[in-house]
Amino acid sequence: MQNEPTKEELLQDIEKLISYGRDENTINPSLLKYLSVEELISIKNSLQKRVNTLDEDDKEWLMKFIKE
User: Fold this and answer.
1) For a designed S-S bond to 10, which of 30, 36, 40, 42 qualifies (C-beta 3.0 to 4.6 A apart)?
2) CA 41 to chain centre
3) How far apart are the first and last CA of the chain?
4) Which has the closest alpha carbon to 29: 14, 47, 43?
């Protein structure tokens, strides 16, 4: 059985997904007391799906760099 991540660990994962390479925090850690672990997992999963999905404009732009 896998250990459930802590709120702090989930916050770190979420920060990585939304930071776009910045080092400063974008989420106030004091908000953790208002969110459950399940809510944080849901947020993280939603962000992972968005980060892993390119929109059509991005795909078109990237296609310009493919050698024929």
Assistant:
1) 40
2) 10
3) 48
4) 14
CB 47 within 8 A of CB 18: yes
Written in H, E and C, the secondary structure of 47-65 is HHHHHCCCCHHHHHHHHCC
Q: What is the C-alpha to C-alpha distance for residues 41 and 38, in angstroms, rounded to an integer?
A: 5
Res. 26: pLDDT tops 60: yes
SS3 content of the chain, % helix, strand, coil (to 5): 60, 0, 40
DSSP 13: H
3-state secondary structure of 9: helix
CA 15 – CA 36 distance, rounded (Å): 16
User: Which residues neighbour 8 within 8 Å (Cβ) at sequence distance 6 or greater?
Assistant: 29, 32
